[in-house]
Amino acid sequence: MKLYQYHHCPYCVRADMVANYKNVPHEKVYLLNDDEQSCFDVVDAKVVPILQFDDGTAMKESLDIVHKLDELGDSQKLLSPSVTSAEFDELFADIKGDMRIVTYPRTISIGLPEFATQSARDYFQHKKEKMIGMSFEQASAQSEQHLEPINQVLAKLSTPELNDTLSIDDIILFPTLRNLSMVKGLKFKQDTLAYMQHVANITASELYFNRAI
Known about the structure:
This protein is α/β, with parallel strands linked by helices and 213 residues long. The chain contains nine helices and six strands. The termini are far apart.
């Protein structure tokens, strides 16, 4: 079984977290960001994550993949239902633009496998500059002014309790926090840092603090 993904993609991280946590045997396939053909060959669309089974069939919706991996994995490792993910969505709703501006330029500069070639970096940059309405150069120059709104939200954030059971809340919240860890100047509370490290540990996921720009 293969899990096609990008390292930075929150939807991919959801699937990868559950595959690791539930001990599902699989091969991680990190596609170059401009590799459209590999996606079309498997699911006839430029999309990730993709879970491809040994018989060649595949599925592509991240939460569908999460539930399939939950079904296939270690039954002793529970995936708890969501309790507070709607609160997370509401809390982060007003700073989505700020988060894109501070993370997108950094994403192609921290050594992730999907950006191993210049063409992959150019492909991502071209698409995301259209999304944020400015060049990455402009976004980098303005980065400082977008940190404060994010820090205000991080100061309000109440993270889930630490335990050895992964939850849907964790797979919604952790990918956002993990991507923010690539940004120097953001202020994470101690309980948030402890939460991030704990979830990273039980899901064999990587935080970006040591690559932060």
